[in-house]
Design goal:
single chain; alpha+beta; 8-stranded mixed beta sheet; 23 strands; 29% strand
Length: 332
């Protein structure tokens, strides 16, 4: 039976510490005082079940936990770890990235080309109810690059409120409306390239309409192509457990890469809930801020990262040297 000393907290140079003195993220490895069986998958799963209350309290305090040095080798192993935590599964309906189920609750992460950056975002911030927790698993360690940076959302909110109070006030009053044009086939070249068929898990337009409506989304059809309009949804949220406001949106995605198309110098992927355009200068400052405040720990094979999606934004840096295979699972 694992003891309370099963998990040892370790420090990595990339971690950050703020006023509270809490390290972000927390990093756990097998405690050196335990025997060699501590790294075995079965022992790891038992320790998760035994110490779940402590792990949940650590997640609330640190907002993300990196598990390193445990015997998680395959997608099936990763699925077993997810099941050991026992969090309810979050079904990826209405998602904007292309993903493929691997086994059980394990899916590919974003399937866009690995040499492309994925901007910072809260997972599925463009729908009213988002997953509360994210798991990532490193099956193949990147040769170079390909990190999954994370950043504390309340830090971005506080800095944006200090530097751009009028813009933040607009977001708090009106929220955001997200717009996407989707065809009937996935676009693997785009970070938001899911087709409407993949997003709503159906080939039937009527079923897609029903599922979209449940997510607060309107579909405007143009043949087999559709304009997906979601919102207004909150761009700033209040996290009840930490009593902090968070920068809960996908503005960075809307302003980066192929999604950042403009008509008449206006971004066509996102607008204020009032219908007015978003402040471009404020968003550019936000993008710099996200890069300055993030933590990017290089992946190691077997790493499992648990993220509080309500308090942490994540992204993906371009892969410089292959390989890289990161899998994911969404939970509540």
């Amino acid at each position: 039976m694992p003891t309370g000393k099963f998990f040892g907290e370790v420090q990595l140079p990339e971690q950050k510490s703020y006023d509270t003195g809490v390290l972000f993220p927390a990093v756990l490895s097998p405690d050196p005082s335990t025997d060699s069986t501590a790294v075995e998958l079965s022992t790891f799963k038992e320790a998760i079940r035994t110490h779940k209350p402590w792990l949940q309290s650590l997640l609330l305090k640190s907002d993300a936990i990196l598990f390193r040095g445990f015997s998680v080798v395959s997608p099936s192993d990763f699925n077993d770890v997810i099941e050991a935590f026992g969090f309810p599964e979050f079904l990826y309906v209405g998602g904007r990235a292309s993903r493929t189920q691997i086994v059980g609750r394990v899916y590919t992460a974003n399937e866009s080309p690995l040499d492309k950056e994925i901007p910072f975002h809260h997972e599925m911030a463009y729908i009213p109810d988002s997953p509360t927790k994210l798991f990532f698993f490193c099956e193949e360690e990147p040769g170079e690059g390909g990190e999954t940076p994370i950043v504390l959302s309340h830090i971005i909110y506080e800095k944006m409120k200090e530097r751009h109070p009028d813009f933040v006030a607009q977001l708090e009053e009106h929220g955001l409306t997200y717009i996407k044009i989707a065809g009937d086939k996935d676009d693997p070249s785009s970070v938001t390239g899911s087709s409407w068929k993949s997003a709503y898990k159906t080939d039937d337009k009527n079923v897609a309409e029903e599922r979209a409506t449940k997510l607060g989304t309107k579909l405007e059809w143009m043949g087999n192509t559709v304009k997906i309009i979601t919102g207004p949804v909150p761009a700033i949220r209040f996290h009840q457990e930490s009593h902090r406001k968070t920068w809960f949106n996908s503005l960075a995605v809307a302003y980066s890469g192929p999604t950042s198309e403009k008509i008449d110098n206006r971004n066509t992927s996102v607008e204020l809930g009032s219908g007015d355009p978003v402040d471009d200068d404020a968003v550019k400052d936000m993008l710099r801020m996200l890069d300055e405040e993030c933590v990017a720990i290089p992946w190691k094979k077997g790493d499992v990262l648990l993220v509080n999606n309500l308090t942490v934004l994540h992204s993906r840096r371009p892969l410089i040297k292959p390989p890289r295979r990161i899998l994911a699972s969404l939970c509540n």
